[in-house]
Amino acid sequence: MLNLNELTQALGDLEDGLVMDLLKEFVATNPSEAEALEAVAACQAGMAIVGDLFENGEYFVGDLIFAGELLTEAINVLKPSLGSGDTKVMGTILLGTVQGDLHDIGKNIFRSMAEAAGFEVVDMGIDVKVETFVTKAQEIKPQIIGMSGVLTLAIDSMKDTVDALKEAGVDSKIIIGGNPVTKESCTLVGADAFTTNAAEGIKICQGWE
């Protein structure tokens, strides 16, 4: 039987070989969907450890990226045991790095963690134009819209995008993330929440459900 605590700690310690060995042995036992969901939860708990260590300065951005990739791999190993995809979807998140910004590391970590948490994520990539956000939001009607940016100019793009979304009547919750984002800029942009940490961002999104 899979030791969930061992799996959580292995992911938190970024022991990729051990994580994969544990999960492959587990999947070979033909676990039930409920058991597979427990394994996903254990992986998510490991990601929370990574997030805490990052906040405390013990892990760095490279570790976060690695953890995000490891989590994605872990979920892929578990997918065959998770049934026909009729697991409860938390909601849909429309995600993108705003116009004028080409950074996607933080966005990709957030996407991996959101998918692992049960959200369906539509990722539009980098340098996403204001009108692209609006058109896609009207098309898929996401519960949450996530905007990422690393450059200071991204704040202006976020504000332009939020203004356009509201003008178009889109009523999704909006979370913004990235290095330049602060409480003040969140208010300026008109977003519902902000984060500089992917793990914290996921908790905020889960709280909206």
UniProtKB/TrEMBL annotation:
Top-level taxon in the UniProt lineage: Bacteria
Residues annotated as domain B12-binding N-terminal: 1-90
InterPro entries linked: Cbl-bd_cap (IPR003759), Cobalamin-bd (IPR006158), Cobalamin-bd_sf (IPR036724), Met_Synthase/Corrinoid (IPR050554), Meth_synthase_dom (IPR036594)
Entry-linked Pfam families: B12-binding, B12-binding_2
Domain B12-binding: 90-209
Keyword vocabulary terms for this entry: Cobalt, Metal-binding
Gene3D superfamilies: Cobalamin-binding domain (3.40.50.280), Methionine synthase domain (1.10.1240.10)
UniProt name for this protein: Cobalamin-dependent protein
Lineage: Bacteria, Bacillati, Bacillota, Clostridia, Eubacteriales
